[in-house]
Design goal:
The complex is a heterodimer of chains A (427) and B (306).
Chain A (H helix, E strand, L loop, with lengths): L1 H15 L9 H4 L10 E5 L4 H17 L5 E5 L6 H12 L6 E4 L6 H5 L13 H6 L2 H7 L7 E8 L2 E5 H6 L10 H13 L3 E4 L6 H24 L7 H15 L12 H9 L3 E4 L5 H6 L10 E5 L9 E7 L7 H11 L2 H11 L15 H12 L15 H17 L2 H11 L2
Helix pairs in contact in A: 3-15, 10-11, 11-18, 17-18
Chain B lengths: L1 H10 L3 H36 L17 H5 L4 H32 L6 H13 L2 H12 L4 H8 L13 H29 L3 H9 L4 H9 L4 H16 L2 H8 L10 H11 L3 H28 L4
Classes of the chains: A alpha/beta (427), B mainly alpha (306).
Chain lengths: 427, 306
């Protein structure tokens, strides 16, 4: 009896495995003109608000282009993407992935490329025309191991400093004149003296402070120091890391008092809408909050400068699509990836998402004035450092540990302990 | 024919129970097989994975088993912190919930008016999901939230703290919220226990001149032992599973001051893809649950209650 169950159990576990085709490269797999397409299953977590609208617009465009392909949306909402991550990892390990899925490009992909789980899409998707339209930063994160494995669909900028115009005027501070993160600290002191919150922030979960620290490091010490950090050479830049952490500790004196009981960035960003805080650092998705507010105009009531010291940089946070092996619908998948790399797809998707297209040849007509400015900044940018908080810059196991270091940092604001935790994250 | 059957029975005394065994199969076999496969099979597989060193998105290597994952644990500060927190949560949450529940049960049992209303009010939090309670306790603990506002209101403003940000209070804040949610359950268990004590005991104690305090301390509470044991086991198992609450409040990285094993396990497995290490943490968690339930199950079995 027990043995029988054991055998059934093994069979069932084995049954979880396998599925999809297993060709070594795409040439063997793809047909030029297939009679019929398998349904295209897309894993994603764009299930609410502008993100949902963006995804729908993208699918609408794709279906217009390829009416024969049935699209099967497979959302895993929740946990800021961790629900999708869990689902996808389980399915990939079971060799039963969806046709394609949303994922951070860059080092986040190395988990997949290390095990050779993604197809090289150079030639089939990436061609000279596409390469021409992309800047170096987005191209680099599309080929973390040298081979093109991802198609970026959007870019969110991370080195932003949003501010409430009236508040900074009241405090007699000119955000345009701030040249470094240290200058920003002085500006916050002035704002505090004028009776406002210096910087709106949430510190109940670690990621916002991790993002902020990365911008402080970039702004104060430049992209080379930042690169040393993400490459794991922390000893070479120890004093810079410590000093930047120190600066964030000093910033924290000027956070809103309820920062530690705020779990959502948008609760913190409200301090800008209501005119209670001067500055707010966040990805450019925060702009959507202000644009949606009545009588709160870009340039008049709220405004934006690159995070002090990061002028000329466009710090990247992106989403991309990939071509997993054991693919249930290779012919449909390749067409979807080709489509995701077009101006049409990116022009449909990004205005709703509040992000900018990775391609630089997309017309900016459909975008808000704020995003038009961001697009101009992006095109003019000389450096596009990848985000450590959003998986582009370090492998997932390192990223988790770095985030853990910041989870302790926002508890005890202990620079020495955080530095040690950061060092051990890279072990 | 009959004689033949009898002689067979005599030769094989087990055949009667054997036929029971086979005849009853359709009733218990499907359920048993499914439980064995999906519960015990999964636990067994998890134990095996914890010995493999499997990480990343490839397939596990079942040819090479090591204890490396378990050896790493003592030197992993995150693991040790979450183990410590798990035990602290277990003890504090269970102990205080029982005391609060007993207190409530004794009060409600005093033939008060609106008894069933009070009972419902106290029990209601248990009906809520951890997700709901985690979110509104976040609001309660906020710096302009209910707790600090109340403290300020009664002139105890100096007591208000950064409840969710200060590592000294973070875990305690979680424990208090969980106690709030589960003491109603303890109350119900104790109330049932109290109701099963015959009235004679109260009367006899009164006639012998026992004070109210003595009556409860000497006569009533000792008779609530089995309620206490039952509630303790249930609470402890809930404490081990407080994952949802912490996950909703702080995400997968709550920091060392509020990390518990269940969250560490999830983070190692699904954020870092350290499957084997995650599995090993799951085994430790499972062992903790067994040490709690094992003795209880054993004594119940001894008493013939299982």
């Amino acid at each position: 009896m027990l043995q029988a169950t054991g055998a059934v159990g093994l069979a069932a576990f084995a049954g979880c495995l396998g599925g999809g085709s297993e060709a070594g490269n795409l040439d063997e797999l793809l047909e030029d003109d297939p009679d019929e397409f398998e349904a295209l299953e897309i894993g994603h977590w764009w299930t609410a608000g502008g993100e949902e609208a963006a995804f729908e617009a993208l699918i609408e465009g794709f279906e217009a282009e390829y009416p024969d392909i049935e699209v099967d949306s497979s959302p895993s909402p929740g946990g800021a993407g961790s629900a999708l991550e869990t689902d996808i990892k389980n399915r990939v390990v079971d060799q039963n992935p969806p046709s394609t899925f949303q994922i951070w490009p860059g080092q986040a992909l190395t988990e997949y490329t290390d095990e050779d789980l993604l197809y090289d899409i150079d030639g089939h998707v990436w061609n000279d025309e596409m390469r021409e339209a992309y800047l170096d930063g987005p191209i680099d994160v599309s080929r973390p191991d040298g081979e093109f494995v991802a198609v970026p669909i959007n870019i969110h900028r991370l080195n932003n400093l949003f501010y409430n115009v009236d508040v900074v005027e009241d405090a007699d501070v000119d955000p345009e004149s701030l040249e470094s993160p240290s200058d920003l600290l002085e500006a916050m002191e002035a704002v505090d003296d004028a009776g406002f919150v210096g910087m709106a922030q949430q510190t109940q979960s670690a990621w916002s402070t991790m993002q902020l620290w990365a911008q402080v490091l970039l702004g104060e010490y430049g992209a080379d120091v930042y690169d040393s950090f993400i490459e794991g050479d922390l000893e070479a830049v120890e004093s810079e890391i410590r000093a930047s952490l120190e600066l964030v500790v000093e910033y924290s004196e000027y956070f809103n008092e309820d920062a530690s009981s705020m779990n959502d960035w948008d609760d913190a960003s409200d301090y800008i809408n209501t005119g209670d805080a001067a500055f707010f650092h966040q990805g450019d998705w925060a702009a959507g909050q202000y644009e949606g507010e009545d009588d709160f105009e870009y340039g008049e009531d709220w405004d934006h400068v690159p995070f002090p010291g990061t002028d000329g940089m466009y710090a990247l946070n992106m989403d991309s699509f990939v071509f997993p092996k054991h693919n249930p619908s290779p012919n449909a998948t390749v067409r979807f990836l080709q489509y995701a790399g077009t101006t049409d797809a990116q022009e449909r998707f990004n205005p709703h998402k509040g992000s900018i297209p990775p391609r630089t040849d997309v017309s900016d007509e459909a975008f808000t004035p704020f995003l038009q400015d961001q697009m101009a900044d992006f095109e003019a940018s000389t450096e596009q450092p990848p985000s450590v908080t959003h998986g582009l810059a370090v492998a997932p196991s390192i990223q988790t540990d770095v985030e853990g270091a910041f989870a302790n940092f926002i508890d005890n604001w202990d620079v020495d302990e955080t530095y040690d935790d950061l060092v051990s994250s890279f072990d | 024919m009959d004689s033949l059957r009898n002689s067979i029975k005599r030769l094989n005394p087990l055949s009667a129970s054997d036929s029971d065994f086979f005849e009853s199969m359709p009733f218990w076999l499907p359920a048993t097989a499914l439980v064995l496969l999906f519960v015990y099979g999964a636990i067994g597989w998890n134990v095996i994975i914890s010995f493999t060193g499997w990480s990343g998105l490839g397939q596990p290597d079942y040819t090479n088993f090591t204890l490396e994952m378990y050896r790493q644990m003592p030197s992993d500060p995150n693991f040790m912190a979450s183990l410590r927190n798990t035990v602290a949560l277990l003890v504090a949450f269970t102990g205080v919930s029982l005391v609060v529940g007993l207190g409530l049960a004794l009060l409600v049992d005093r033939k008060i008016r609106f008894e069933s209303t009070f009972r419902t009010i106290y029990l209601l939090p248990m009906a809520l999901s951890f997700v709901v309670t985690a979110i509104f306790w976040s609001w309660m603990y906020a710096s302009n939230g209910l707790i600090d506002t109340m403290l300020n209101g009664i002139g105890l403003g100096w007591l208000s703290q950064d409840w969710l940000g200060d590592p000294r209070f973070k875990l305690a804040a979680v424990i208090v919220a969980l106690i709030w949610q589960f003491s109603g359950y303890c109350m119900i268990v104790y109330l049932a226990g109290l109701r099963s004590i015959p009235n004679d005991h109260y009367e006899a104690a009164r006639i012998d001149g026992a004070s109210t305090l003595k009556l409860y301390w000497r006569i009533i509470i000792p008779q609530l032992r089995s309620s206490t044991v039952g509630a303790t086991v249930v609470l402890m198992v809930f404490a081990l599973k407080a994952f949802d609450f912490i996950y909703v409040m702080f995400g997968t990285n709550p920091g060392r001051s509020a990390d518990i094993l269940a969250v560490t396990m999830y983070r190692e497995a699904f954020s870092s893809s350290e499957w084997a290490y995650g599995a090993a943490i799951a085994v430790v968690l499972f062992a903790l649950a067994l040490t709690i339930i094992g003795p209880y199950a054993y004594t119940q079995y001894k008493r013939g209650a299982l």
